[in-house]
Amino acid sequence: MSECKHCKKKLSATEIALTRKLVNRMANEFLCLTCLASHFSVSEELLLKKAEEFKKSGCLLFQ
Fold this sequence. Notes:
single chain, 63 residues, mainly alpha
């Protein structure tokens, strides 16, 4: 299992997918939800909402 490159927290599949979708599709290092939200200066809730939208739209990263 992967860990956040900043805080070393274990990551969920959604956090890995969000990093790949929003930062770099070919990423090998990932950010947890908290660090990703901080990186983009948005709320964690907004990122989770976007993840659901990506999943519903059929994005293969969010299967």
